[in-house]
Amino acid sequence: MRTNAFVYRGAQPSDAVAIAELHAQSWRESYRGSFRDEFLDGDLPAERLGVWRGRLDGAPDDQLVDVATAGGELVGFVCAYGDHDPRWGSLIDNLHVARAAKRHGVGAALMRRAGRWLAARYPERPVHLLVLEVNTPARRFYEALGGESAEVATLETHGGAVVRSCRYVWPRPSVLVDTRDTVR
Question: What is the value of pTM for the model shown?
């Protein structure tokens, strides 16, 4: 895929099905062995569709959902919530990129878009996200974007699995905006 082949835009309610399908596929590829198999092998797209319809229909003012497309197909998305937590600040709740679009700058571009949106609205608040401790590629990616691991916590996931998650933090959203295009 060519880097300039991607189009970025705000998500619309009509994107809910494609977002849910990519979200489910990403979890199945990345979280096998961490999430329960019966959860991953169940009707995960339908479960995720309920979440994404709820998020995109009448989205709150403190929520951003942006998507990346290539050839009209959804290849990535990011979801952020401004000033979500009194201590940790704004939350990047989701970042998922289709396997074929990985290592083409899509994830970094989506994180920069979230950083710009957060910087315009919550410039002095830190930014954080949670990533499974076993997801080494994602952790390296967030570190390349300037994120620092602040803590590791044991959490119950969707479907009832218990996992160790790392909280990555950025002191301000402008740090995300300033990341270079070379981060893959």
Answer: 0.92
